[in-house]
Amino acid sequence: MYRSHTCGELRKEHINKEVTLSGWVQKVRDKGFMVWVDVRDRYGITQLIFDEERTPNGVLETAQRLGREFVIQVDGTVIERESKNANIPTGTIEVLVKNITVLNESKTPPFTIENETDGGDDLRMKYRYLDIRRNPVKNSLIFRHKVGIEVRNYLSNEGFIEVETPYLIKSTPEGARDFVVPSRMNEGQFYALPQSPQTFKQLLMVGGMDKYFQIVKCFRDEDLRADRQPEFTQIDCEMAFVEQEDILNVFEGLTRHLLKEIKGIDITNFPRITYDEAMRKYGNDKPDIRFGMEFGELNEVAQHKDFKVFNDAELVVGIAVPGAASYTRKEIDKLIDWVKRPQVGALGMVYVKCNEDGSFKSSVDKFYNEDDLKKWAEATNAKAGDLICVLSGVANKTRAQLSALRMEMAERLGLRKADEFAPLWVLDFPLLEWDEETACYHAMHHPFTSPKPEDVKLLDTEPGNVRANAYDLVLNGNEIGGGSIRIHDKDLQALMFKHLGFTEEEAKAQFGFLMDAFQYGAPPHGGLAFGFDRLVAILGGQETIRDFIAFPKNNSGRDVMIDAPAKIDEEQLKELHIKLNL
Amino acid sequence: MYRSHTCGELRKEHINKEVTLSGWVQKVRDKGFMVWVDVRDRYGITQLIFDEERTPNGVLETAQRLGREFVIQVDGTVIERESKNANIPTGTIEVLVKNITVLNESKTPPFTIENETDGGDDLRMKYRYLDIRRNPVKNSLIFRHKVGIEVRNYLSNEGFIEVETPYLIKSTPEGARDFVVPSRMNEGQFYALPQSPQTFKQLLMVGGMDKYFQIVKCFRDEDLRADRQPEFTQIDCEMAFVEQEDILNVFEGLTRHLLKEIKGIDITNFPRITYDEAMRKYGNDKPDIRFGMEFGELNEVAQHKDFKVFNDAELVVGIAVPGAASYTRKEIDKLIDWVKRPQVGALGMVYVKCNEDGSFKSSVDKFYNEDDLKKWAEATNAKAGDLICVLSGVANKTRAQLSALRMEMAERLGLRKADEFAPLWVLDFPLLEWDEETACYHAMHHPFTSPKPEDVKLLDTEPGNVRANAYDLVLNGNEIGGGSIRIHDKDLQALMFKHLGFTEEEAKAQFGFLMDAFQYGAPPHGGLAFGFDRLVAILGGQETIRDFIAFPKNNSGRDVMIDAPAKIDEEQLKELHIKLNL
């Protein structure tokens, strides 16, 4: 038996108990006649004490030869610690060691195994197995496990069945690039790894498995941006015999359950807004509503004066930044530079200081008087002390710019609190999206997404205004889930394909087996998928997903620890009926 | 709202309630003035009734036009049924329909959606989404889900953390063939899909995550035998700071938990036998111990008489088949033919009938007297009425032949009861396995498996007799799990590589990153993996895994429903830096 207790378990009530501990050497303090060793495992750290008087011959000497990250096993007696350490749960005791075994030695690790390490990202990834010993990474992985268990228990209790769908499927030309797998047994043919189990979950609905979920790996061979992985995990769900409202209720319930069980937070407010409203109020389809700064549209009150910039603009829109009226001229100039950066792209910014005495000071005082500015303050809901920031131009772009500014100001003001959670449904996404490149409409979600029945008549005349029964779940400014009600009526599906520019043959070639299945009694159905990596990171109060993934890949899609991908044998290529084409 | 209740929910207490049901049409019985429709969903079947007197205009006519598998929604009143159907839980009621909507029509399905279908395997696989509507398949998938939930809850409660390991990893020349994935971003290089997360779980142990598990897909590009899938699911587990005993206890606990929670069975007996004992007693390293018929070795009592066949044999061994003394001469001849089939391969069989009066009648009466045969009966534990079947020859082969006979007789006698569960640990597997082809020893489990400390000294002299700290969990004659204690000492590992015929360079090339990791403080560790598909099938009392997999592949590795694998575009190949080599 390697241990009677873990290194995080011993307390005052264990004093005088004989114990056996195993773990890694965190730290050795050697005073010659006395040695203290901190031993660490997954559960914590316990201080060991060795001294000339009480420790048997040889044992103290072994302790003195220990290096960082050596694996040891000790037998000893729990004693009260003289100088308590209130920072760790085991801080009131120490173990007086009688016997020590070095289970394994360790080379000096390439970085410190501490909460704050001296190792850079590359080194940490190469030695990920050492990085995982560090609390921040270890705790993130344990946290991920807990979220997974809660998701499964909630959905299982709601009658959902986890069904495993295949990983070796068929490549489809739609959407992102597939990873493919050459088949040895089927010469010249390839499997594809799933980008999502979308078609399989719809087939399960046709199969009558009316509440399906799966926590499942998905694969996209896309050029990687920061914080995106070629393989990622999804909570994939689908329900049959449901309307949108039923789906929203179930997954609102899941979100509440997770926040309650994982974070101890009762969510009182779970608002729903439409896509249009999200764009008008926040310039963003995934608004962070932990703070205000809602957009105030100023066309009515700011146009038709002598300020040409505004008069020419499609949209004049502003936000009131709380407390920022105290910004100096220099600070404001810097802010104007910020909105003019290419990443934001505004041509300029008009500002109004709402002074504490109720007066205003703006950058456009020669065009607008106090009464005018008072109306601006009303439209942006500005209070005394606020700074109104106003952008103008083409509506969509201006909204996006102001959204960037809103997020930036919230960040600066500390309004994006990691321990505050504000979920939100965004509903009624547009069904179609105009693609400049191909000059035609594409399905915003996917071609099986159902339009709102009352909007079907607009498909011919105003396709861009047709709303879908599609919804996103947003948490703290991040889209954590999205889905839709699917089309189950074959006439409507045919109409959709027509509007997406598919001929009947093309539709059949691409979606044949699903369309076949739909001829045998497809029930009304819909669902959604959560990005599990992102969800876990946000619940964990983190911005990036990387430490919530045990073995992530870098931005070139490489695993630098195992050095993959890698070359394979000629023999192997031959068996797979392929050769390199470099 | 599509339904107020499911089709399996309504009972006597719902009588007079207004309800809405949705589901598929199972059956229509049309008597002209009266129509009964069975409507079915995941939860059951409810009888609907329509009649001229009570059903509104048009509704009866719609019911008359319904076809099998149409999707309908009905509103109606629950009424007491005149002729009750005791076979279904809803059999005391029916719903008098007021309103019907056809949600979707269906073509006539290619096979009947009944417990016993008229569809053959191929048709069922092609239309798997219809097959899943059938109770046997649907219930198998739901059963699988339940087992998964119980596995996760048990391990989670035991402190195990589910960690997702990557699917895009590195190809290794060891073991079975890998499926590979060409990398677009890393020209000429390939990922491999994992055959198991073996190295990653060992890295997690180095990383201090001392209790890991994962229910995970694994991939092997092997020529498929019946009931083997190219992608399969494993319950993968690993623990650090444990000895074999700790691991056995945890997974004995898991097995007991599953049998209790899933089957309601308390396992009183969970025996452990060694590999050697299993081979001697059952001729098999995964014996079915739901029944006896243990081997009796007869060398001592059957050799040194005048029967040359036995005298020349390395092993003479028999079993007592209960109650089979009543076999006719013809039946026994057929049995002898059976053991002589090439699949079994025995040259002949000697038999002894143990008559009810205590006398014996054997096929070798001219060589053996009653006293001799009495000793055979003692050695095989035969009772009056049993038939002793005796094989002889080279020990290993003869044991395998007798094992086949033992299983066959158990099958014929109905001793392999689907609702009886007899788990068993088989311990102390040989470390090495002689490979005729390469004329050298191979690791039986994998090269990181630890030999028994007391056997290390035999590595040089009797490598074939070195036992490993390796164990299999056997349930009803199936290996459902297997694992080992791993080597964590680098000197022992070097010794092992030497004995497996690796040079230092070869070992480094193949297992480099794991060996690197082991230099930084690898703890003692070990683990095991369960075949989840098989485990679920056995718990479900089935012989084959196929119906416990939602979308299985056929023996050519094809998914005939989606028609995968398939050709991909030239363009796609080009991007992946490969071309076909047909």
Instruction: Provide the CATH superfamily of the domain at 291-412 in chain A.
Output: GAD-like domain
> By helix and strand content of chain A, what is the structural category?
alpha+beta
Shape of chain A, please?
Answer: globular
Overall mean pLDDT of chain A: 94
The CATH class of the domain at 291-412 in chain A turns out to be Alpha Beta
Beta content of chain A comes to: 15-25%
Rg of chain A (CA only): 30 Å
What kind of assembly state do the chains in view correspond to?
homodimer
The number of E-state strands of chain A comes to 23
| Low-pLDDT sequence parts of chain A | none
EC number (chains A, B): 6.1.1.12
GO biological process, one term (chains A, B): aspartyl-tRNA aminoacylation
GO molecular function (chains A, B): aspartate-tRNA ligase activity; ATP binding; nucleic acid binding
Region (Aspartate) (chains A, B): 198-201
